[in-house]
Every structure is written in structure tokens, then in C-alpha cells.
Amino acid sequence: MRTIVEEAWSGINVQLKKRYDLIPNLVETVKGYATHESETFQRVTRARANAMRVNDLKSREAAENDLNKALISLLAVAEQYPELKANENFMQLQHQLSIVESDIEKSRRFYNGLVREKNIVIDTFPSNIIAGMFSFSKSLFFELENEEEKTVPQVRF
After folding, report:
1. Residue 135: left (phi > 0), alpha (psi -120 to 50), or beta?
2. CA distance 139 to 6
3. Residue 117 — φ and ψ, nearest 5°?
4. Looking at the predicted structure, is the pLDDT value of residue 157 above 90?
5. Rounded CA separation 138/131 (Å)
6. What is the DSSP letter of 45?
7. To 10 degrees, what angle do helices 38-53 and 2-31 make?
8. Helices (H), strands (E): how many in the chain?
9. Can you say whether residue 107 is alpha, beta or left, with left for phi > 0 and alpha for psi between -120 and 50 degrees?
10. Which residues contact 5 (CB under 8 A, 6 or more apart)?
């Protein structure tokens, strides 16, 4: 179970790497239209660098949440520039980012499901005896904050 959980974590890392590779191109495309938004670009760049640098799960969660917030602000800047939103390169990058975000979510769900199974085995008799003897420990879930999930959509007529 430990090996399977580690393999699932590796799958998350692959998806995160894809996202990290897309971000500089997205920033450069937006920079071409919104040159005076340097604070937003720097925030995205710092958040990406920090997310790539951390290794432990809790730090990775925090770094990814910061990166998500920075990306949301970058895309909000893009919304202010109609000619940018119509740019073919920007549209392709935004579409690729959307696909990668979906793949990250799938990988995260798969990983968390395996963590749940492993943790149940560690807690359940008689395997809990063996787990205790060999100091097997529970794995942590990988949870990302999603601002969209937290806000309740408003319906107006």
C-alpha cells in the first residue's frame, strides 16, 4: 500500500510539473498586453518557484494554494484586455491549463483514495498490529483550496 500511495503521489507531481511548464508561457503572453501589471507577474513567478522548491506534503499544499491564488489574479488581469482574450496563443494556453488542472484534480482524488485505503488498513485489526510492529504510519491527504468551491454561486432573475 505504501508503494502504491507513493506511485500515486508521483502522478500528482507529473501533473504539477506540466502546470509549472505552462505558467511561464501564460505569463509572457499576458505580459505582452498588460505590461503595467508587473506585481501580478512577479507574484505568479514567485509562487511557481516556491511550489517547485518544496517537498513535504503540507508545504506543497500551502505553496500550491498560493500558486492557485496567483493564477486566479493573472487570469483576472487577462479578463480586462479583450484583445488578449481573443489571442489564439492565450486561448490555447488557457485551454491547456484547464486540462492540466482537471488532470491534477483526478490525480489528487486517486492519491487521496489510496491514502484513505492505506490509513484504514493501518487502523483495522489485525493489520494494525503488524503496522504498529513495523512502525508503518498513516499518509497525509493532499488537499488544495479551491476558491470556486468555497463560494456559493448566486442566482439572480
Report:
1. left
2. 10
3. -60, -45
4. no
5. 10
6. H
7. 160
8. 7, 0
9. alpha
10. 111, 114, 115, 118, 139
Q: Tell me the one-letter amino acid at 122.
A: I
Cα 14–chain centre separation: 11
Binned at pLDDT 50, 70 and 90, residue 147 comes out as: low
CA dist 62 → 2, 51, 54, 68, 78 (Å): 23, 8, 10, 10, 25
Would you state the pLDDT for residue 146? 62
d(CA 82, CA 11): 36
> pLDDT (tens digit, 9 = 90+) per residue, 44-79?
999 999 999 998 999 999 999 999 999 999 999 888
Taking the whole predicted model, whether its pTM rises above 0.90 is answered as: no
32 CB neighbour count, 10 Å cutoff: 13
Distances (CA, A) of 86 to 12, 90, 91: 31, 8, 7
